[in-house]
From TrEMBL:
NCBIfam families hit by this protein: sensory_box (TIGR00229)
UniProt-recorded name of the protein: Phosphodiesterase
UniProt xrefs under InterPro entries: HD/PDEase_dom, PAS, PAS-like_dom_sf, PAS_fold, PDE8-like_REC_N, PDEase, PDEase_catalytic_dom, PDEase_catalytic_dom_sf
Binding positions for Zn(2+) 2 per the UniProt entry: 519
E.C. code: 3.1.4.-
Recorded superkingdom: Eukaryota
Gene3D superfamilies named among the record's database cross-references: 3'5'-cyclic nucleotide phosphodiesterase, catalytic domain, PAS domain
Domain PDEase: 402-741
Organism expressing this protein natively: Emberiza fucata
Positions of AMP binding: 478-482, 519, 647, 699
Ranges of biased composition (kind: Polar residues): 284-295
Residue ranges of the region described as Disordered: 280-305
């Protein structure tokens, strides 16, 4: 930015602003007289001008401001008036300053930081707003020069602007249509017949397209092919109507384009009329196809720059491509594309659509409980899970045991921890429900985590103990045994050859830490419950990924607040930031609302390309496979898929472990349903009523909806035949119980 300081004499105030300009990186000029200030401004066109108004004996600050404002260059300049600080008299009015053209007033304060703060506020406030106005003005110029006829009306159908092309086409003089209601403009009866149809469509936010007739001023009828697009503006209401009308001749060929844009603001139409204009409302091909080659080229360049202001997401590009294809498509194709667009514009692009609740109540309830953020209905009986809750810290815990001093029974329970059939419940019993510390020490040692983090074993032991202490042993499922189980599954997956080819050491470290902390301080209730209950955590995280955000945040709070357990304290800053980002991303990936998005992206970006390479005989082409596996985007998808599979791998465990986990999660859901009924909250999973629930049916629904496709994809990537065998056996087991109409975990003796 360029700043002009106008001070007759050097003093602490002017020095403060000069220092502030240097600190902010702004270019600064200093003028002593009004004449030199005006000359300097006309030469440099400064973004900010600061004029000293404290000493009228030197020059008239208001007169200088008026002189600057008479120049075209000052239209988007922010001009500040520095006034004296008066403590002994009443505050004076700023209206004379505003009348003179000042943007705002600065009461003298020579503090360097006060000057710096003022400049920064100006940069991100008024100056940034002026930049946007400059862009709006360029768009306005494009409208004025456009050969397309453009009309802008208010939400009450009052015409606020028409461009010269519109006035010429419709036969009106300059300014003749401004502030007229559309009903005052002659229209053909045939168009009137269509108005109700059009309004009933566009008033509910839908596009309308069709033919109607309009009358020129001289009474001649013109036939138009019109497309009207309502645009949502301030307050979430329709404030604009973008109408693209093609003037048709006898052969119904498109000759011209008329665009009608309903402006949002009735008080500042020139400023705001382009603010919400959507890309695609202008027919760029039409705009750039007329006139000389030089003009055409400049227009192409201009429109390209305007379009580059918007960063399009891939889904936006897809929608724009489909919209363009509709223009030249037959009616049946256009209607089919409309249906496709409706699907693409939904937010749940990756979630399968269920049938009615009666058809599949178990699946429907599981989806409601795991994949939504609740009904967001506050009950008045707010569920207290506070972000200020007391958590265990290193100093409040006893000194943990060393890896070399582990009791024989625990050592024996961990002997086969590298195998998938490792029994976590045996370790839970041997450790008196403290399996995470012991299993963590062994797995982290096997992967060399202390060496990577440059931390001591005692720091790691303290950290594991702090994390485990902040899991709720009172939860039947989401306790430290579940965390240890997920840690074991993560370590097992990391040992698979394909995964080892893909991930770097920092990824392995992040995955093991994320698995350890992924459910820390879990209250034993779902996100839906917390949102419906209006819990403090739900409020803190805006009802979005509430628990997962809490787990990730608390994990780093517990780790960094005490040097005794801070496993990151010796890491280089950039490496720590990278590790932290990966851990957070993996923990957030365990949130179920994006389950199908993660799985589908994994299948389409990794499974299918690898399968295509194999089908084309490139199985041995290491470079092609490496390209798929090692791209940064795909490594992120693989890490997300890894922790997701580890988190809900219970149905792929040996049968007795699978049954035990099924009982524990069912009990936790039963307890939630009980509490929802006690508190009068919406019951998000009604089938989990301890008196009526069929556990086999709930397991089969969960496996069918969430597990099978995900583990098919993960098995195709990581080669896990033993897991798939357990999964098939467990499905048969649950189907056997369900076939006998049994609702319990095990058949009767």
């Amino acid at each position: 930015l360029q700043v002009l300081l106008v001070f007759a004499e050097e003093d602490e105030q002017s020095s403060g602003f000069r220092w502030a300009c240097d600190k902010a990186g702004f270019r600064c000029n200093l003028a002593r007289t009004p004449q030199s200030a005006l000359e300097c401004f006309l030469d440099k066109h400064h973004d900010i001008i600061i004029i000293d108004h404290r000493h009228s004996r030197y020059f008239d600050a208001e007169a200088l401001c008026r002189s600057i404002r008479t120049t075209k260059a000052s239209e988007n300049t922010v001009i500040i008036c520095v006034v004296q600080r008066h403590t002994d008299r009443e505050e004076s009015s700023i209206l004379p300053l505003i009348s003179a053209g000042f943007t705002r007033r600065y009461v003298e304060n020579s503090s360097r930081m006060a000057c710096y703060n003022e400049l920064i506020q100006l940069e991100f406030g008024q100056v940034q707003a002026q930049f946007k106005l400059r862009a709006c003005n360029s768009l306005f110029t494009a409208l004025e020069k456009s050969q397309e006829a453009i009309e802008i009306t208010s939400e009450d159908h009052v015409i606020q602007y028409v461009n010269p092309a519109f006035e010429t086409m419709m036969g009106y003089q300059i300014g003749e249509l401004i502030e007229k209601e559309l009903t005052e403009v002659p229209i053909n009866e045939k168009k009137a017949d269509f108005l109700d149809t059009i309004n009933s469509c566009i008033k509910i936010g839908k596009e309308w397209q069709g033919m109607y007739y309009a009358k020129k001023k001289n009474g001649d009828s013109i036939q138009q092919n019109v497309k009207i697009l309502p645009v949502i503006g301030q307050g979430g209401k329709i404030r604009h109507y973008v109408s693209i009308s093609r003037l048709c001749n006898d052969n119904n060929k498109v000759e011209k384009t008329c665009e009608c844009i309903q402006a949002e603001s009735q008080t500042d139409t020139q400023t705001c009329r382009h603010k919400d204009m959507r890309k695609g409302s202008l027919d760029v091909r039409s705009t750039t196809s007329r006139g000389s080659d030089g003009i055409s080229q400049r227009r192409r360049s201009s429109m390209a720059r305007v379009h580059s202001m918007t960063i399009e997401a891939p889904i936006t590009k897809v929608i724009n491509i489909i919209n363009a294809a509709q223009e030249s498509s037959p009616l049946p194709v256009a209607e089919a594309l409309d249906r496709a667009l409706e699907i693409l514009r939904t937010t749940e692009l990756y979630s399968p659509q269920l049938g009615t609740k009666d058809e599949d109540p178990h699946t429907s309830d599981l989806v409601g409980g795991l994949m939504t953020d609740g009904l967001r209905r506050l009950s008045g009986n707010e569920y207290i899970l506070s972000a200020k809750q007391t958590h265990q810290v290193a100093g409040s815990l006893s000194s943990p045991i060393s890896l070399n001093d582990i009791p024989p029974r625990i050592t024996e329970a961990m002997e086969n921890e590298e195998q998938w059939d490792f029994d976590i419940f045996e370790l839970e019993a041997a450790t008196h429900k403290r399996p995470l510390v012991y299993l963590g020490l062994k797995i982290f040692a096997r992967f060399g985590i202390c060496e990577f983090l440059n931390c001591s074993e005692s720091t790691l032991r303290s950290w594991l103990q702090v994390i485990e202490a902040n899991y709720h042993s009172s939860n039947s499922y989401h306790n430290s045994t579940h965390s240890a189980d997920v840690l074991h599954a993560t370590a097992y997956f990391l040992s698979k050859e394909r995964v080892k080819q893909t991930l770097d050491p920092i990824d392995e470290v992040a995955a093991l830490i994320a698995a350890t902390v992924h459910d820390v301080d879990h209250p034993g209730r779902t996100n839906s419950f917390l949102c419906n209950a209006g819990s403090e955590l739900a409020i803190l995280y805006n009802d979005t990924a509430v628990l997962e955000s809490h787990h990730a945040a608390l994990a780093f709070q517990l780790t960094t607040r005490d040097g005794k357990c801070n496993i990151f304290k010796n890491m280089e800053r950039n490496e720590y930031r990278t590790l932290r980002q990966v851990i957070i991303d993996m923990v957030l990936a365990t949130e179920m609302t994006k389950h199908f998005e993660h799985v589908n992206k994994f299948v389409n970006s990794i499974n299918k390309p690898l399968a295509a390479l194999e089908e084309n005989g490139n199985n041995g082409d290491g470079e092609s496979i490496k390209t798929v596996l090692r791209s940064p985007e795909n490594r992120i998808l693989i890490k997300r898929m890894l922790i997701k599979c580890a988190d809900i791998s219970n149905p792929c465990r040996p049968r007795e472990q699978c049954i035990e986990w099924a009982g524990r999660i069912s009990e936790e859901y039963f307890a939630q349903t009980d509490e929802e009924r006690r508190q009068g909250l919406p019951v998000v999973m009604p089938v989990f009523d301890r008196n009526t629930c069929s556990i086999p049916k709930s397991q089969l629904s969960f496996i069918d909806y969430f597990i099978i496709d995900m583990f098919d994809a993960w098995d195709a990537f990581a080669d896990l035949p033993n897991l798939m065998e357990h999964l098939n056996n467990n499905i048969k087991y649950w189907k056997g119980l369900d076939g006998r109409n049994l609702r319990v975990l095990r058949p009767p003796p």
